[in-house]
Amino acid sequence: MLDQSLEGFPKSYRLDSGLECEVRPLEARDETPFWEFFQAVPQEERMLIKHHVHRPEVIADWCSKIDYGRNLPLLGFVDDQVIGACTLHQQLGGWKRHIGRISVFIHPLFRGRGLAKSLVQEVIQIAQQSGVEKLEAEFIAEQERAIQVFAFLGFSDLLRLEAYVRDMQAVSHDYVLMGMDLTTDEEYAGVG
Ligand SMILES: CC(C)(COP(=O)(O)OP(=O)(O)OC[C@H]1O[C@@H](n2cnc3c(N)ncnc32)[C@H](O)[C@@H]1OP(=O)(O)O)[C@@H](O)C(=O)NCCC(=O)NCCS
Fold first, then answer.
1. 92: which DSSP letter?
2. Residue 78, pLDDT score
3. CB–CB of 47/167 below 8 Å?
4. What is the DSSP letter of 7?
5. So what's the pLDDT on residue 47?
6. Measured at the alpha carbon of residue 104, what is the angle toward residues 127 and 3, in degrees to the nearest 5?
7. What are phi and psi of 46, to 5 degrees?
8. Fold of 2-189
9. At 70, is the pLDDT very low, low, confident or very high (cuts 50, 70, 90)?
10. H/E element holding 159?
11. pLDDT at position 192, please?
């Protein structure tokens, strides 16, 4: 089902500023531009990403072991530069096997042009077509803009825990878990 939902890629987007952007899943040949993209992550945003993405060997490892069933990174490109990434993370077993997690990061110079909204929307659709039943996304409360994007696309708060997570400077932050139920086409077909 996942293969089918990826058939439409690459896709071409025109961003709010009129900039043309190509969107497609990560491929092994993207190792260098994908690593360069993560070098643009400001220091204060590094804690928002769960992996050591400034290390080339981490990105090399991702690109050599691409498994869309586990991690499907959808990338936005302008020319050969990666300007945004939105990933669908899935666990293939265990009690969260029906739940996908979405994360998104947009290059600081390309924010405010609608790219996050478009990429997250695209990943929601892929998840739905692939049979994922629920989606979740994790934030600290200060990520108001990201929370706004996910709320706009249908996510709602599942949980807020005060001073629950801690950054590299040992400062505590409120933890926010948002979620969304995905209705399958069959369920829609039964309505009305
Ligand atoms: C949060 C983030 C993903 C948004 O990306 P983006 O491409 O700038 O978002 P969009 O352009 O799609 O904008 C979506 C909404 O953000 C808000 N927004 C956009 N530009 C803004 C700006 N300059 N100031 C304040 N809010 C802004 C608006 O609500 C906008 O909706 P609108 O178009 O209806 O006004 C991006 O800032 C980012 O990567 N942040 C750091 C990482 C992060 O927080 N990731 C989420 C973890 S899952």
1. S
2. 97
3. yes
4. T
5. 83
6. 30
7. -60, -35
8. Aminopeptidase (3.40.630)
9. very high
10. strand 156-166
11. 46
CA atoms within a 13 Å half-sphere pointing along the CA-CB vector of 168: 9
Q: Is the peptide bond before 42 cis (omega within 30 degrees of 0)?
A: no
- pLDDT over 80 at 189, yes or no: no
Q: Which residues are paired to 21 by β-bridges?
A: 13
Nearest residue to 90 (alpha-carbon basis) of 56, 121, 124, 127: 127
Adjacent-strand bridge partners of 84: 76, 106
Pocket of ligand 1 (CB under 6 A): 45, 48, 103-106, 111-117, 137, 139, 143, 145-146, 148-149
Please state the atom number of ligand 1 nearest to the C-alpha of residue 118. 12
Q: For the whole prediction, is pTM greater than 0.90? A: yes
Give 139 Cα–ligand 1 centroid separation in angstroms.
Answer: 13
* Domain segments of the chain as ranges: 2-189
**Dist. CA 119–CA 73, nearest whole Å:** 10
Q: Provide the pLDDT for residue 68.
A: 97
Cα(166) to centroid of ligand 1, in Å?
23
pLDDT at 125 over 90: yes
CA dist 163 to 66, 132, 159, 160, Å? Answer: 35, 31, 13, 10
